[in-house]
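Weekly structure sync - notes
Attendees: PM, LS, DV (DV joined late)
Agenda: review two folding runs queued last week.

Item 1: First target. Sequence and structure tokens pasted below for the record.
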Amino acid sequence: MKRSMLFVALLFISAQLFSQNQTNNSSALNAAETLLNSDSKLSIGGYAQIDFNQPLSDGQRQNATLDVHRLVLLFGYRFGEKTSFVSEIELEHVQEVYVEQAFMNHEFLPWLNLRGGLMLVPMGIINEYHEPPTYNGVERPNLDSKIVPTTWREVGLGFTGRLDNASLKYQLYVMNGFNGYDGGGKFRGSDGFRKGRQKGAESFMSSPTLAARIDYYGLPGLKLGLSTYNGKSQSALYDGLADDDDAALAMADSSVVGINMLGFDARYRNGGFEARGQFNVANISNTDEYNELTGSDLGSQMLGWYLEAGYNVLHGNQSGQRLVPFVRYEQYNTHSKTDGNLAVNDKYNRTDVTVGAGWWLTTGTVLKADYQFFSNANDSNSGQFNLGIGIWF
């Protein structure tokens, strides 16, 4: 926890040091925001990620994989000046089809928009800004896989808006929660909530959850974000439950965990220099009862952070191309704390170092290469070499 507090302190200090001569990045948009800001009645776009991954470990040969990791088609429609619809259709690994987003947005005022449908949970950087040309590295940070289970989206309704006089943007949604139990436990120590994402696919809700985020962009070149997620996981055991069946009610209560997640993130630039960082902590209640019922090993706290820095060596080049060597250091522990008789598993306390570079031929096309060093508190070490192509239009 001391290292986590040090990380937050360093992030704030760095923000102040680099904010003086930076260009304003508050206008940076993700794919959905781009569609919402389009003047066209019908907008079409997309993004794609094609990867080569070669795992490397001592004493063991492993095949490389080549994968059309994702191909996403975006469609937006503007019904009038105030009302729009945004959708993203994702094909993963060539054969899996998902709806990544499908929501309606109605603007009452610039600071008050009603939004409803299948939406991204506004937690962290990558969950909302996950288009391959918007981040360094072939693969997304593992923090955003193990703790913030990117791409995390659920069905909900809420409000969003901008208060430019205060340099603030906010999001506030009521959503369905994770599927924690549906004939068996969905959560586990290795990757937390990831298996519980309902993704709008016949999602069920036994209690609502609240997701909120505030972004501050008042300093040139700097963007700060604070996110929170609060509620309980959902359980199929409540469906059809008789009010007077105390034994069944106790069992259903044991199949639910309470989730309180908090996140802080920062992005900034100074000429060719760019950096970002993120911190997330999730406190989970009722894990002792949940693990006893399901046979799982879910921890009572998950905690992680990363820092990343890069430099565009083509800064000032009139071609508009960017060549960015970077390094990212991340630590994430899905067993930061455990309850009851569950012992902390040190293999879930992980450290990753990623070193590589990205060459942006244009704003929406990038070639990437990096090497990742993986280790954990059990002194297990491995690595992976990655190559990637990223597209966004």
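Item 2: Second target, run right after the first with the same settings.
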Amino acid sequence: MQPIKVETEKGHELVRRAILSQIEEGLLQPGQKLPSVVDLSTSFGVGRSTIREALSALKATGWIDVKHGGGTFVNKVLPASQSNSRDPFEESENVKEILEVRIWLESGSAAFAAQRRNDKDIERLKQIIKQMEQALKMNNTQMSEHADIEFHLAIAAASHNELLNTLMNSLTCKLTETMGKTRQLWFFEDKSSSTLLLKEHQSIYDAILAQNSELASQLIQAHLHKVENVLKRRAIQD
């Protein structure tokens, strides 16, 4: 008899459902501020990254609003119950499929960001680049991966297209789960280092700063195509 693989629920999903239940049951009211990431981490007995993943998923589905420097709040207008709906990205375990979606979404968001970015968007991207530099100096992989995700989400926010931004935020959980794998593939493809990865992000930032939409789109496509090319070659070999 073939063994049956039993999937265990991930920590961030358990936290997400617990917070969602509190909102749906009225224990957390619309507009109410949630405890800090540190306090939630202590309360649930999990790491801060797990809390951030759960909050990102709740933000993407419209239950909470995360204000940089201002805290996390239950949305004043809550979405309809989502018990019968599914996140289209939740089902996909295929890194290749996620990359294909990212290439299409992010090339467009980068082009729009270059056209529409404002001073606040530029400052946010600049801060993330500094975080990447700090992570590189400290050789902190977790910090680097988190900054990488934030960079791509900040570009989507700078597009000032709410639907595009929502779609990118819906990918946050999958980005978090697959970021380590995609970065390893990127290094394998380019046979280089974190230093070059930082330079690629810097180049994308520079193109957005210069309002060069065509270049920004091309750079982010090239950035993601490196990983896709490795996956294609592996599929052929397999």
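Discussion on item 2: The first strand starts at residue 64 and ends at 67.
Action: LS to circulate a short write-up before next sync.
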